[in-house]
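tmp note - Lysine--tRNA ligase
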Amino acid sequence: MTETPAPQGAPADTAEEDIFEQKAVRLGKRERLLAERTDAAGGAYPVSVPVTDTIGALRERYAHLESGEETEDVAAVAGRVVFSRNTGKLCFASLQAGDGSRIQAMVSLAAVGEDSLQRWKDLVDLGDHVFVSGTVISSRRGELSIMVSDWQIAAKALLPLPNMYAELSEESRVRSRYLDLIVRDQARETVVARATVNRSLRDTFAAHDFIEVETPMLQVQHGGASARPFVTHSNAFDTELYLRIAPELFLKRAVVGGIDRLFEINRNFRNEGADSTHSPEFAMLEAYQAYSDYHGIADLTQELIQNAAIAVAGSTTVTWADGTVYELGGQWERLSMYVSLSAASGRTITPETSLDELLAHAAEVGVDVPNKVATHGKLVEELWEHYVKPGLDRPTFVMDFPVDTSPLVREHRTIPGVVEKWDLYVRGFELATGYSELVDPVIQRERFVEQAKLAARGDDEAMRIDEEFLRALEHGMPPTGGMGMGIDRLLMAITGLGIRETILFPLVK
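out:
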């Protein structure tokens, strides 16, 4: 029995009756394979098959073959059947490896005999993993092939594949990523790109003598960022715990302990909205360098991103999925938040601008900040996003934020009411943030107290007082520069994809 590719989106988008019928037929074939099994290597799901080569390696090794050229070299490979065509005495199948490389299997009456050829026709379906061995040739059409002398099922597929020649919907791609990886080259390339980015980041850090560490994801008190946490309960300790929103406060403890250059790549969790640039669960890089500041950490961040782009794309000039060419090279601009906001709005806005004046301005231009959480800093940042953010195209460090929105950051050395913080914008979204870290435990306690007041007023994102962290600071933390960057967003900047495409298995409803 042969079959044609299932309609676009199968199994999710195929009629349930059709799936049920195909599955019933395939289950019958599974039963036949199990009944015919003679040892552990047979049946529908053998323990192993005697593979000697990979499809990709064969394609590279025999790229020189001319159309119709044959060799006496014997190879044994396995792959998923993604195309099948059966004729009287000769069957063709395209076998696809996990990396997307393909080779043609040619099963002929002359080479395998009548019984084996008929078993192929009866038992092999699209989607099956099949092992074949035989001589390597190039077909008359120039297709690298194996003239099969022996074959067996490596894993029987009970459900049909999507149409390999029609694009899955975005929802199907996200919900059934395993099918997306089979069907779409971009999906596999994104997985590889992500691994390449992580390797590049680690290589760059190693070149600067940084140490990779790991810190707790379950925390008795959330902190390190302004965000709503996920809450859970530990039965063993009979206590409420939080999935971490950031590793910052633990990484700083390590700096206090003498690990002067360290970084962590791991998961963060924020109980907030999901959109094209936000995911409740995401991968985060944080790094801290003692005896540096926010200028030094900006230099390091630019190097990390540019090296990652080169590792993936071969250049700092990257091409996004929609064909847009984007330049990540060169020296990136450093733009003052207050200066750029004043220029864009046509009004002078400084750290001394009153809350009432900012509220009136925000109301005038339709920027809404709830009164219960309205502060000078929140209004300045919201107004900046209204006026300046939409015009950012090139990678830009936005420098020097209001003090009341950055409770873990050192005050600016020359500008009162401002802290030494930057946000890096790429493609119009925030990619990373960096600080000259606040290391004075007395001022840090004062900042935490102000955050606690905001929490009491109903700000769900405000931080709580962390006594253990303050105790660590009281033992002395050196001047330090720190940064945080979303790995998913870094992939977005390099590939041009949305966040759900850069995460292998994103959370969906």
